[in-house]
Amino acid sequence: MKRRIVSVVLTAVLMAVIGCNASVTSSTMNKRITEYSGINMIKTIRNTVEVQHTKTQEEYDRLTHIIENRNGKIVIEIIDAIVLDNDGNGSNQFGFYVKYDSKRFSKGETVKTVFVYNTDTNYWDDIVCRVDTLI
Question: Can you give the residue ranges of every domain in the chain?
Fold first, then answer.
């Protein structure tokens, strides 16, 4: 399970660094991958990525400050939420609303959600990539 979570987080980071745009030509994508490969990729990720798995109120309070002051840093939030009904309405442990695909998830299921926030703004709802995984 940990391997799957790491894989999801790594995919989200790479999508945020390289780009989520599927219309990019393969030559452009190869150039971007080459630019961020190896040691340079590791240094770039270490200096520009903040990953927060919010499970406690203290972690959530810290995340609030990080999101509102990200200033170009890639912020990745990981939450666990429960699907509350068959319409896909869900809630995390702090009572915040999360909408899920009712065709993929059923009432009572726990879902791990990864949000990657836009680096260009400090808005709470400016999410560029989202991945939902049943746990």
Answer: 2-134
